[in-house]
Amino acid sequence: MTETPVRTERRGHVLEVTLDRPKANAIDLATSRVMGEVFTAFRDDPELRVAIVTGAGDKFFCPGWDLKAAADGDAVDGDYGLGGFGGLQELRGLNKPVIAAVNGIACGGGLELALSADIILAADHATFALPEIRSGTVADAASIKLPKRIPYHIAMEMLLTGRWFDVDEAARWGLINQIHPAAELMAKAREMADLLASGPPLVYAAIKEIVREAEDMKFNDALNRITKSQFATVETLYRSEDQLEGARAFAEKRDPVWRGK
User: Fold this and answer.
1) What confidence tens digit (pLDDT) does each residue in 137-185 have?
2) 153, 175, 197 — which closes off a domain?
3) Domain co-membership, 91 together with 217
């Protein structure tokens, strides 16, 4: 295996992505471009159904933008590559579940990376913050996403003060799904990934597209688009072999065998 800031491992239908840039797993432009390539390949590989993203070591998940690289000339408005910063938050058509296994500090762009996942599991020592305010800049993606994920006033406190939240407070506000002892985090993430990988991938794709596209739509408009199969993933699902397999398995009182087609 060649040296790379991003390590990947395929485990059946699951792709594990580990950000590995000592000392803190910060993301510079080159790393972001690699991550974009990794997640684009995940999106486009029909054999892969779920991804886990985590950080190397036991202290940092990701602190976000590499300020040392910025001081050396990386432009904040430079080429982040496919999917934007970290390869996830702007990646179009990513209709597969992504799990963030937050193994330590997740701040700034690192918290934004976690927010780009669908499910967030955290080690019991993980901490969270948006400290951009202290360096005179804006947490742009978090300013858009966070007030939609947790109570508005809590999100604004994070954005306006930059204060740190421990894992218990993050769970209390619904920022994360589960807390696990650090030594068990990856095992629990793999357990969750295996559960999702055993499920119907075409249904997952439809769920993700509906949730993404309907976010700013009126309820009736979104529902009409679903019932009229105006979402591409819903149209694919309703014409699929898996749709028939689900009905047959229910009638035959057996577990369905999902083929993603």
Assistant:
1) 889 999 999 999 999 999 999 999 999 999 999 999 999 999 999 999 9
2) 197
3) no
Q: Are residues 80 and 94 both part of a single domain? A: yes
Between 119 and 76, name the one with better pLDDT: 119
pTM score, two decimals? 0.93
Q: How far apart are CA 129 and CA 256, in angstroms?
A: 42
Which range has the worst mean pLDDT, 40-44, 46-50, 137-141, 197-201?
A: 137-141
Q: Does residue 258 sit within a domain?
A: no
Q: How many domains, in total, are found in the chain?
A: 2
Handedness of CA 37, 43, 47, 49 (dihedral sign): positive
Specify whether 112 is catalytic: yes
Which uninterrupted H or E stretch holds 14? Answer: strand 14-19
Q: What is the pLDDT of residue 215?
A: 87
The one catalytic residue among 47, 90, 112, 245 = 112
Which residue in 9, 16, 47, 132 is the catalytic one? 132
Report helix, strand or coil for 39.
Answer: helix
DSSP H helices in 150-254:
152-161, 167-172, 185-197, 201-214, 219-227, 232-238, 241-251
Clarify whether residues 212 and 101 are in a common domain.
Answer: no
